[in-house]
Each structure stands twice: as C-alpha cells, then as structure tokens.
Specification:
- By secondary structure, the chain is an alpha/beta fold.
- It folds into three domains: about 15-70; about 80-210 and about 220-250; about 260-460, Vaccinia Virus protein VP39 (Rossmann fold).
- It has helices at about 35-40, 45-50, 85-105, 145-160, 175-185, 185-190, 190-210, 225-250, 260-265, 270-285, 300-310, 320-335, 360-365, 380-385, 390-400, 415-420, 425, 430-440; strands at about 15-20, 25-30, 60, 65-70, 105-110, 115-120, 120-125, 130-135, 290-295, 310-315, 335-340, 370-375, 400-410, 445-450, 455-460.
- Helix 11 links the parallel strand 9 (about 290-295) and strand 10.
- Helix 3 packs antiparallel against helix 8 (about 225-250), helix 4 runs parallel beside helix 8 (about 225-250) and helix 15 (about 390-400) crosses helix 18 (about 430-440).
- It is globular and about 75 Å long.
Length: about 475
C-alpha cells in the first residue's frame, strides 16, 4: 500500500477491492462467483456499462479466484467533497439503477453514496457487488434504510438545519431518524418534508422501545403470479416515493459573494477581463495539457475554457455555492469538469479504518496534472491562511507535472488591500520579485503578461529537480 492507494476493502463478504497504479482489482469470494458472472454477462449489466452508469469490468476467470479489473477514476472524490447538486444526481442514479434492475431480476443490496464516484460531471456506480438476485416474491427493499440514512437524511438536515453535507466524513452510515428528530423544532418535525422520513420513524422507535415485546407478524410470501406482480409494483412505488422525497429534501440553490463574483467584480473592466481570457486561452493552446487542475475555480469560467480546448479538468473550489454552480454548468454543457468542494489550505484528511480507507485529498491530486491554474488565489492563501510563498510554490510543484499558470495580485490591488487588515508589516512590501524568488529551482518563467489593472499573468514550466 502506497501513500496514494488505500488498503483493500474488507467489509463486503462477497469480495474485496484494491487499487493499483492504473486499475482497480476486485477479488470475488468463491460463494459469489456464479452470481457475479451471471450479472456481468447479462444484457442489463452490459447496457449500464455502455451508458457509463456502471464501472466497466474486465473478467479474469483463469485462476482459482474470479478477478475483475476496473479502470481507475483518475481523481476519486467522496460524498464529503460533493456539492448538493452532486448529492442529488448520485441519489437519482442509485434509484434509477435499482428500478432498472427490477425488470432484469436484480436489485441493489447496498444504497450508499460511498458506492458512487464522479467521472467528470457524471456519477458512476463503481461497486458491482452492490447487485444481487432479487427474490421476486418480496416487496421489501433491504437497502431502503441505508438509502434513507445516507442519502435522504443528510440532504434533509442540510435543508432544515444547515448541517453541512461535509459532515458525512464522520458518518459512514448516515443519520438515524431519532437524532434528526431530537435536533428539529416541533414545527419542522411536523412539516411535510420531515414527517415521513424523520418524525414517524422516530416516534415508532420510541414506541417500540417502550414496549419491546410488541412485534408484527412476518408477511406471507405467496408464489402466485398476481403476488409477484404486486411485489414488483410496490417496489416501484417505493422507489418513486423515495425519488420524490429526495428531490423535496434538496437544499435550495444558494448564492454567496463568491458565486456571484463574476457578475459583481469591479476591479476588472470588460476589456481587461477579455484580455485575461485571451491570454489564458493562448497559454492553454501552447501548453496543450491533457489534465488540468483549476485551484480556486469559482463558478468555472476558466475550467470551461480548458475543457473546451480538450482537457479533462478537476476544479477545486472551497465556496459551496460557487462549486455547485460550477458543477451544474459542467453538466448542462457536458464538459469534462470534475468538481471538488474542498479547501486547498485545509485539505480533506484520510479517514476510515487505520486512516487508510479513504485517501486524503492531496495524495489524490499530486502529480496528476499537466497544468495547474491558480488565478487570483495566492493572495488568499497568503492573507487569509498565512501560508508563506515558498510553501505555496512547493505544493504547486508537487501538483503539476509540467506547467503552472498564476495570476499575481499586487499589494496595491483593492482585493489585496481588503484582506490585508492592518498587517502591512507582514505583507505590505510583497512584490513580484518575492514570487519569482519562491519559484527559484522549482519553476522556470516562460511568459509574463501585465494587465491594465496592475495584475500580472505568469506562465511557468516545472523544473524536475529542486
């Protein structure tokens, strides 16, 4: 196991997964071998894979164990790094695939956002072992409770009490209705949105605790054709109701100073904005990157520019409203942009058993990109996080394989001054020469372009040995 690879999964008795440099290798337990092969050879599975809704799998059936080799998603992300809109499309994909599986005789036995990754703006189910043969006589979806805990309730509590979706970092199995009930005021408990998924289950749980001897008779399973049809109908209604309640739980589209930034900025004239856009475009055309990391991407104007020129882009943005707009823009325009809602100065830590199940953010990003964009970001790291210039450039050196494009914001700039807050003795004398000194032995200056507002655009090439 390397710093960039989590340990093999171990919770699912049907198999385990380990990550290699260029693929994910899944080892199937002998007891699950026949069922997994049936699934992979089914028209249902092949249709999902062709659409890109389910991860592809190369079957290696030559040895004593069944091995599946999956393509790796270049930069995996976790639910705690998603925007609300990403949560919604991941939930919809889960319900879509479960409903489609019913007609083919299968069903999802797991329904957690941890089984979803994003390939650009598209969600993809990566756990093939989540499917199992369906008992056609039952109308119960065993993963129902997991879906409610891990998808529906986090969305609902974000909407009702602004519990951040990033708290899923600490809640692998989501929320229980009882804890949500305790946190809500009575008016919210009785609302249409919370009554069914929170209030009724919580009250029933209290009643059961007060009378533990009370139990309900197990439902009978008649094997008549009518019963099978009814079971399928009930399952479809269950999924339809979950979809409706999930969409109702979605937090309203938010705005912030940063999500509205492109429309409200006053330190750029339209001519200067166009000049910046044209120069960055030419720099991208010259560098011809295949993989781009846009740090501080805001609502994604330059991420979209890089994607339109053929690059696959990872857009990192710490403001949730801005990141959510970026994600929705990428989906609407079908651009190869993967949105990560995270803060480079306070990156997502490794979590899980032995801190090795889910990777920290930086190991997932390091040396993955031909070009890194940092447009008007450095002064935020300097002034808001007090990260020294050499440290910032050292991280950039680790992230990029070839090129770095920076926008230097001088001390006189109104945005720099608004963040300075009386610390002139620390940062008031910073200048471009300090930036270039921090780049020494790390980057070679290739191009420099001053803008009319005093800002400077710079393109660097990475020096391999430093």
């Amino acid at each position: 196991m390397t710093a960039a690879s989590p340990q093999a999964t171990f919770r699912d008795p049907a198999g385990s997964l380990s990550l290699k440099a260029d693929q994910a290798v899944r080892t199937i337990a002998p007891a699950s071998r026949a069922e997994v092969l049936d699934l992979l050879q089914s028209a249902f599975c092949q249709a999902m894979q062709q659409r890109g809704d389910l991860i592809a799998a190369e079957i290696d059936d030559s040895g004593p164990q069944l091995i599946l080799r999956h393509p790796r998603i270049a930069v995996p992300t976790y639910p705690w790094e998603w925007t609300p809109s990403q949560w919604i499309v991941a939930a919809e994909l889960t319900l879509d695939l479960c409903e489609e599986a019913l007609a083919a005789g299968w069903i999802l036995k797991d329904a957690t956002p941890l089984n979803i990754l994003f390939n650009g703006p598209r969600p993809i189910l990566v756990d093939i072992l989540s499917f199992e043969r369906r008992d056609p006589s039952t109308s119960i979806w065993l993963a129902y409770g997991q879906y409610v805990r891990t998808f529906l309730l986090p969305l609902l509590m974000d909407r009702l009490l602004h519990w951040p979706l990033s708290l899923s970092l600490f809640r692998r199995d989501g929320y229980e209705p009882a804890e949500c009930f305790s946190a809500l005021p009575w008016r919210s408990r009785m609302s249409r949105t919370a009554l069914w998924p929170i209030t009724l289950p919580a009250l029933l749980e209290r009643r059961k605790s007060a009378n533990p001897a009370q139990s309900s008779a197990a439902p009978s399973k008649k094997s008549t054709l009518h019963t099978l049809e009814v079971a399928t109908h009930i399952l479809r209604r269950t999924l339809k109701a979950l979809r409706r309640r999930t969409l109702r739980a979605a937090p309203p589209l938010a705005s912030s100073n940063w999500s509205d930034y492109p429309q409200t900025l006053t330190h750029y004239t339209p001519q200067q904005s166009q000049q910046k856009h044209d120069w960055v475009r030419q720099a991208l055309v010259s560098a011809q990157p295949v993989q781009v990391l846009d740090i501080g991407a805001n609502t994604g104007d330059f991420s979209a520019l890089a994607a339109s020129l053929g690059a696959s882009v990872v857009a990192l943005e710490r403001d949730q409203a801005a990141a959510d707009r970026l994600f929705r823009m990428a989906r609407q325009r079908n651009l190869s942009i993967q949105t990560i809602h995270a803060d480079l100065a306070r990156p997502t830590p490794a979590v899980g058993w032995l801190n090795a199940e889910s990777l920290a953010l930086l190991p997932r990003l390091e040396a993955q990109f031909d070009l890194v964009l940092m447009l008007a970001v450095i002064h935020h790291l300097l002034l808001m996080e007090q990260i020294p210039l050499p440290e910032i450039l050292a991280l950039c050196h680790r992230l990029t394989r070839r090129h770095l494009i920076l926008e230097w914001v001088p001390v006189q700039d109104p945005m720099f001054q608004s963040l300075l807050r009386g610390r002139d003795h620390l940062y008031g004398s910073l200048c471009e020469d300090d930036l270039l000194a921090a780049c020494a032995n790390r980057f070679r200056l290739i191009d420099r372009h001053p803008l009319g507002n005093g800002r400077i655009l710079l393109r660097f090439e990475k020096i391999e040995e430093c």
